[in-house]
Amino acid sequence: MGMKKETNGMDRREFLKRTGATAVALGVFPSVTRVRAQARPTADQVIQGKDPRLIVHNTKTGVLETPLELLRQHEITPKEIAFVRNNQVLAGGKTLEPIPLKGWTIEIIGLVHRPAKFDASVLKELPQHEVTMVLQCSGNGRSFYAKYAKKTGGTQWKHGGMAQTVWKGPKLKDVLEHFKVEVYEPAAKFLTANGRDEPSGTKPDFEHSLPWTDPYVRENAILAIEMNGEPIPAVHGGPVRLIVPGYYGTMNVKWIGTLRFEAHESYNYNQIPRYRVPIYPVEPGKFSKKDFTYENSRPNWHQKVKSVIFAPLDGETVKAGTVKVEGVAWNDGVVPIEEVQVSTDQGKTWTRAKLKPGKSPFGWTFFETYVALSPGEREIWVRAVDKLGRAQPLNGGIHWNPSGYEWNGADRIKVKVS
Ligand SMILES: Nc1nc2c(c(=O)[nH]1)N[C@H]1C(S)=C(S)[C@@H](COP(=O)(O)O)O[C@H]1N2
Ligand SMILES: [Mo]
Questions:
Q1: Nearest-ligand number for the alpha carbon of 94
Q2: Closest ligand 1 atom, residue 256 Cα
Q3: Which of 244, 271, 298 is the last residue of a domain?
Q4: Distances, alpha carbon 170 to alpha carbons 88, 174, 198, 224, 226, in Å
Q5: Whose CA is nearest to atom 5 of ligand 1?
């Protein structure tokens, strides 16, 4: 796969030429507003094979959001509509086509007795594990901070920076055993994963550290070679992706090249100050990314309990009378979702929705209930609580943080009742 595949057969320069934006790209005009006036590439032009109805947030690396109208149509999100978040790009990787396992090398190094270097085709021979799970960007819902607290920088995701997908491959612990790697205990406290994608210019390379002390990493991590029953599409991290069910999307590192066992979290910019939240509440705007230390913050690891209304949709017009409200709830998979509560009087009273447990502890729990709505502008609020009592705040703004991560406020939509 050559880089030519970039924007659906067009490279960037060719694309700009066709849209007449070459002069702008070459810096002849100081303003970028002219670029905005040009037709923006659609999702299928950004990532080959994607549904053109996806929302394009970034054409350069490829950042695509799934509108809820599409997401809600499938229990397992098909590859054509699954969201994409590339911080940086794998050469030839902006496509749904797979990349062969053979010829793809993986290294396991660091605090281990026997470092391993192997061809990824070995992974097919080891016992396979399959998991259905919510893959969610830690920035999903970021745009709501603007509504409930204060706007933050970063992709202004609504709810569509998530998917429910099925991943399959050998467990990392079985791979370690197969190669007799032997991680040094207790010295090795973190697993740092790095992909073969490359940063642009002088940016630091993308990588993440996960806590090796967490059984949800040690026991459940998979070196996935399949997504939704097929070889992983290149853009989703094929041929080999680190999958850690329950963890935010960003920790599910794509295009695995190197796994390092370490005593300390990575010093990489993507581990700190990016992808972090303060460990105590901060006043919106009174704390910035540069204030983060390893001690006063934590990475986007376990997903917070959350629910999203799939129907009706925000802004929709519905008929007065009995209205069906449905959607999904999930958390980090440590305990099940206990209840999903629905309110049509802005939180004064709540009713419990009927739950249909999902395919796995890490997947969506479906909820549905019926509410009575009289004509006018009405609000529907939904919040989930799990068996540990972890609940969504009514005002998600209380978890404001400088990069707008981990939004999990009660979902509050407005409908017109006619
Ligand atoms: N190697 C690598 N892995 C990565 C990323 C990346 O840019 N490079 N992006 C991360 C982020 S922020 C998210 S949300 C998910 C997105 O996964 P997807 O593109 O398959 O939807 O991949 C994560 N893994
Ligand atoms: Mo992300």
A1: 1
A2: 1
A3: 271
A4: 26, 7, 26, 7, 10
A5: 86
Q: Helix (H, G, I), strand (E, B), or coil: what is residue 18?
A: helix
Q: Which ligand is nearest to the CA of 136?
A: 1
Determine the distance separating the centroid of ligand 2 and the alpha carbon of 345, expressed in angstroms: 34
Q: Are residues 243 and 335 in the same domain?
A: no
- Asked whether residue 196 is assigned to any structural domain, the reply reads yes
Q: Which of 79, 241, 250 to mutate to test the pocket of ligand 1 (most atoms within 8 A of CB)?
A: 250
Mean pLDDT by 10 residues, the chain (418 residues): 37 43 43 61 98 98 98 98 98 98 98 98 98 98 98 98 99 98 97 97 96 98 98 98 99 98 98 98 95 98 98 98 98 98 98 95 98 98 98 98 98 98
Nearest to 83 by CA among 151, 141, 5, 17: 141
Strand partners, 247: 302
Ligand 1 atom with minimal separation from the 87 CA:
7
Smallest Cα–Cα separation from 61: which of 197, 252, 152? 197
> What is the CA(50)–ligand 1 centre distance, in A?
16
The per-residue pLDDT for 34 is 53
- Cα distance between residue 329 and residue 331, in whole Å: 7
Distance CA 168, CA 239 (A): 12
Q: Which residue's CA is the closest to the ligand 1 atom numbered 24?
A: 253
Query: Containing domain of residue 83, as a range?
Result: 1-271
pLDDT tens string 175-206: 999 999 999 999 999 999 999 999 999 999 99
What's the token pair of residue 97?
């086509």
Domain count, the chain: 2
- Residue pair 47/95 in contact (Cβ under 8 Å)? The answer is yes
Which residue puts its alpha carbon closest to atom 21 of ligand 1? 84
**Which residue CA neighbors atom 19 of ligand 1 most closely?**
84
Cα 31 to Cα 215: distance, rounded to the nearest angstrom: 51
Supply the pTM of this predicted model: 0.91
The one-letter amino acid code at 30 reads P
| Residue 219 lies inside a defined structural domain of this protein | yes
Residue 297 lies in a domain: no
**Closest ligand, as measured to the CA of 232:** 1
Pocket of ligand 1 (CB under 6 A): 82-88, 135, 137, 195, 197, 206, 236-237, 249-250, 252-255
Ligand that comes closest to the CA of residue 47: 1
CA of 89 from ligand 1 middle (Å) equals: 10
**Do 359 and 264 lie in a common domain?**
no
Residues 45, 146: one domain?
A: yes
Phi, psi at 136, each rounded to 5°: -130, 130
